[in-house]
Structures are given as C-alpha cells and as structure tokens.
Amino acid sequence: MNLVIFGPPGSGKGTQSERIARHYGMTHLSTGDALRQAIRNRTEVGLRAKAVMEKGELVSDEIVNGVLREIIGQKRGESDGFLFDGYPRNIEQARQLDTICGEFSLSHPSVMNLDVPEENLLLRLTGRRICGQCKATYNIHFQPTRQAGVCDECSGPLIKRADDEPDTVRERLRVYKEESAPVLDYYGELGRLHTLDAAGDSDQVFEKITSIIEENR
Ligand SMILES: [Zn+2]
C-alpha cells in the first residue's frame, strides 16, 4: 500500500503521518528528508540538488522526481509501502510519481486529505506558544498554561513564533490552498482521493484514517 498525505499547516499532518507509518510499517518519505539523504549519499542527482541549493535556487521538478525515484528504488521491499508527505506538490510531480510507481511495480498511491475548517486552523496556529527555555508547546485556546505567559514545566517565558502571527498564518494557508487544489483535483478525477474531517483530536482523526484504509485495501 502506498499513500500520499495532504493537510494544511496546523492540520496535524506530521503527527498522523508518524502514526500511520508506525501502524502499517510504512516508510515515511518527505521531500526534504529524501533530498538530504541523496545529498548525504552523494548520488548523481543528490550532487545536482546540492549545487542548485547552494546557489540558493529552487530544486526543479526533474531533480525532485529523480531523488524520489532513487530512494523508492533503494527502499522498496524494506517496508509495507511508502507514505509520501509534502510530495507531490504539483500535477507534474503527481504524474511522475505514478510513472515511478509503475516502473517499480508498486501500486498507485491513494490520497488522505486532512480537512480542517480555516477558523479552527487559525486558532490552532495563532494560539501556539513555545517555551523559550525547555521548548514545551502550548496553545492559549486549547492547552493553556496555569499562569498566562509562563511555562508549566520550567517557569520559562512563552514565545510566539513569527510564523504564527495572524497575517503570516493567513498567507501560509492561502499558499497551501492554491498549491494543493489542482493536485487534489487530479487525484479526485482518478478516484483516489479520500478527504476526511480532521477537526477532532489526534485519536479520532487516526481512527478515521485507519477505517478508510481498511475499507480500501
Ligand atoms: Zn519550559
């Protein structure tokens, strides 16, 4: 089984990816990890990626696809399939992923799309606070500290990341929507898109994901 996971910032995509990969014995593959691994291993396409990144330029689809092809070739058979996270980012990459899976006789991936209402995402992201000392995380709306602005664990000061300011959050959500919409449409037309309500807590969302997977196995 191969899966692609989609979800906006704040949707809990990272946590769910880890749980799915652990539960089903899958290899969790993000584009960033794949690139770092190819660079570390000094593969041909890894060295090309490194040269582009050192110039501060964006890595092309061709390089990203090449890196993914390399890692899929190396790791297939090591686990019960791949969970792609942060890839594909556009239709061209989605098409390429299907081609690569075909080359290695792997099933075409189905897509889990975590859907959370925007107002909820705004509260989750703008409410996030991190302890400046011990890095414990809180949320002023959902998981407040006993004393405002002070860490429960170490009494350190709570910090709000610049990324979590309301304007930045709205922009991150807008960019995500714009980028993901065509790719989700692509998978929808192929009948491989599963969109689920991911507004609940982590356990509820994970249960929904596993029941969709079981129904479609
Ligand atoms: Zn602390």
Molecular structure report:
The chain has one domain (3-117, 168-216): Rossmann fold. 27% of the residues are buried. The protein has helices spanning 13-24, 31-40, 44-54, 61-75, 91-103, 118-126, 166-189, 202-216; strands at residues 3-6, 27-30, 82-85, 110-115, 128-131, 137-139, 158-159, 193-197. A hairpin with a 5-residue loop joins strand 5 (128-131) and strand 6 (137-139). The strands form two sheets. The chain has a five-stranded parallel β-sheet with strand order 2-3-1-4-8, sandwiched between helices. It is α/β, with parallel strands linked by helices. The radius of gyration is 19 Å and the shape is globular. The mean pLDDT is 94.
Features:
217 residues, alpha/beta, Rossmann fold, 3-stranded antiparallel sheet, 8 helices, globular, binds zinc ion
Cross-sheet strand order for the largest sheet = 2-3-1-4-8
Beta-strand percent range: 5-15%
- How many individual helices? 8
Give the helix/strand class. alpha/beta
CATH class: Alpha Beta
**Overall spatial form:** globular
Low-confidence stretches: none
- Ligand species: zinc ion
The value of Rg in angstroms is: 19 Å
Number of strands: 8
Write the layout of secondary structure elements.
Blueprint: E1 3-6, H1 13-24, E2 27-30, H2 31-40, H3 44-54, H4 61-75, E3 82-85, H5 91-103, E4 110-115, H6 118-126, E5 128-131, E6 137-139, E7 158-159, H7 166-189, E8 193-197, H8 202-216
Parallel strand pairs: 1-3, 1-4, 2-3, 4-8
Antiparallel strand pairs: 5-6, 5-7
Bound molecules: zinc ion.
